[in-house]
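Students often ask why we bother predicting the structure of a whole assembly rather than each chain alone. The short answer is interfaces. A chain on its own may look different once its partners are present, and contacts between molecules only exist in the joint model. In this exercise we take two input lines together and write out one structure for the complete complex. Read the inputs first and try to guess which parts will touch.
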Amino acid sequence: MIKREVPVVMSVDEEKENASKQEKQVKRAYPFHEIEPKWQHYWENNKTFRTPDEIDTAKPKFYVLDMFPYPSGAGLHVGHPLGYTATDILARLKRMQGFNVLHPMGWDAFGLPAEQYAIETGTHPKITTLRNINRFRSQLKSLGFSYDWDREISTTEPEYYKWTQWIFLQLLKRGLAYQAEVPVNWCPALGTVLANEEVIDGVSERGGHPVIRKPMRQWMLKITAYADRLLEDLDDLDWPESVKEMQRNWIGRSEGAELEFSLVDTNGLERDNKIIVYTTRPDTIFGATYLVVAPEHVLLSSIVSDAQRKQVEEYKEIASRKSDLERTELQKEKTGVFTGFYARNAANGKNIPIWVADYVLGSYGTGAIMAVPAHDTRDHEFSLKYSIPICGVVTPDNVNFSYCEKAYTGEGTMINSSSSISGLDINGLSSKEAALRVIEWLEKTANGMKKVNYKLRDWLFARQRYWGEPIPVIFVDDTGEGIPIPEAELPLALPELDEFTPTGTGEPPLSKALSWVKTIDPLSGKPARRETNTMPQWAGSCWYYLRFMDPKNSKDLVDKEKEMYWSPVDVYVGGAEHAVLHLLYARFWHKVLYDIGVVSTKEPFKCVINQGIILGEVQYIAYRDPDGNLVSADSVDATIEYSQERIAEEKVMKSGDSFVLKDNPNISLDRPCSQDE
Amino acid sequence: MFMGPFRDSKTWNTSGIEGVNRFLARVWRLIVGSPSPDGKFKDGTVNLDGKPSVEQLRCLHRCIDKVTGEIEGTRFNTGISAMMEFINAAYKWDKLPKSIVETFVLLLSPYAPHVAEELWSRLGHTTSLAYEPFPKANPTYLKESTVVLPVQINGKTRGTIQVEEACTEEDAFQLASLDLKLSKFLAGKSIKKRIYVPGKILNVILETQNIEVGQR
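Now the answer. The structure tokens for the assembled complex follow.
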């Protein structure tokens, strides 16, 4: 890092070492210790980097933005200045090239750590947050970045979250925010809902208590309504191809068909109910040898035979404790239970068994699939385990393929695919032609239809937390109807609380603010209760780049002319960990704001750059027992407190798989390799 | 920024910072001078005089071109390498013209704004360099190509020299007088006139008496 001439993050030892070096050797290579503060003061006093509100818009503009940080208690880490230095160099260059430059900084300051700290210590998150912000700001200033500090914003300020709430109301108005019962990670022992990151292998990260999936009323945002636009508009963006690809995969558009299967009970009698499945491979319809429904499928209880009921109920219970990721990616072996019911495959009139298995997610497609073991790897695995027939219907061209050994998932020529019962014959066609023919037949015979499907789910937009934006909705007591509060009443300020521990019932902490929760519906005058869920941390970061253009505007989210001039962000720099969610959520909100005329561009960020990560330096640590004797790292005793000592690389040599002291090869060393963003 | 390509992962290493610190110190001492025995640096700068030579301008403009391109392409580390090359070259020069130093300081400023501001003020400027126009590379000095220049002495082609296309008359003449073949004709002679068409020809007319002497 060239810009700042001393390392940003130093251990206490290094700092001491440096200080003593400097005392011994007063001759510095050049007097950076005088120069840096001098010019930082000059810039601050002269407001050198102030971008005024009124500017000469005839000049070209350059908006260069960092992903604003979460002000953690630990202060800056080396990953921060890496990105910030890059944007700063660009900002300084562009100023000198005659551009009006917008280069702001702010704080994404709502979030879990401050709340957890509050639970542990009783310190109000507002205080912790303010303290951390002050530290971040002074650290950034000491690095001499050329931010326009007059534009500083924090997502936790009511003047800011007023507009976050305002956007929520616009979403609500357009039917893009709705309520639904959605399973959450519920930990009965802690009496709280946990974020996915707080659940590890089915137990809570803190305390190791069991976590189950429990349906709760949640706010959802209908990002799926924008799936096509979010996908199409990626093409024109100057973003890393890898990030675009991740977004495409996350949206996961596929073309296929929905098929209806009639239910057949244990006695072979056809029922009125139908199971609808989604498939991306309608061409393989003759190869479907069983159906799978997800454990949370709504029809499941009505398609279980009495003999299988106990087993199915047990299976559902076990599956409810697993996360989606565990079910689809991590779990090595597929599991499932036969329901006792069958489905009639209309293409060939055959009855095939219906299974319940957790490798199918209730949230994907219709929550049910037709399983084609010959042509799908997961189905193949499953059918081998449970001895379900495998029937090959696509043959790779010019190759003899054994469907028993593994699935053939590619395209090819159709075989074994005709039936006199249905009159459908697709033998000899290519997979593509066959798919079209099958869809045609489905639609003609009312057995299904063409369907585009997305992996993208609606966005769960409620958290059972205190330290977030209140959701500006009230519920009238007698009807329970949710009513948005009038825009004129925004911001709906977060009420003061002294105690932040979970309620134990799953009710959010805000429900403890009794006098705040109780309110009156301004229209009907009837008593009502406020929504006690808060918004997720993603909310504030979805639109902050707009506020920087006009941070103090009390009438509008952003002034139209200012937005027209500064949009879009020309260069946006941050870590690759935000490649999917943050960027996707921000693009979604931006498109909604575009539709309601608040912004003038379809996309918020013209160019996105991911900085690389900084890996920890190789270090060697020796241990000394309380008496000061060196102890080999492989024989340290967890009950004794050792002092640690950093060993210089030249005093270390390799011995076998470990590293030892050159002077004393009996002492092996630790090699912790830290990694930072 | 010097740790490696911006988009790549890199290993934290304080020696990288030392390298950059050394570079900035070299910039500092080139322009401000060496410290006195007590470690203090004098005010102002070293003597910055002379007119920039073609070589200096080429070196500078190559650096401008590279640094601008590398910043805009977010290849910050190679932009630094270019400035290091420039400073290495500058240490070999006898004279350090002020205009060259000023341009370089502006070039350095996006990367090392503190040092750059300090040097800028020592160069006699009273306001920040933050809004000074960023140097632009002059394409004339970026041409790598050299030409074979015929050299005539009194109208007769006596040999050729290899020169850069933008070479000045003085530089071309210097090269000619150093050339093994041509120097025989020029050594100790007084020159009446030089005719120089850049990229085409250098014609040297000698004083008449010298020719006579030569003929004898």
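Check your guess against this: Chain B touches chain A through 52 residues (CB under 8 Å).
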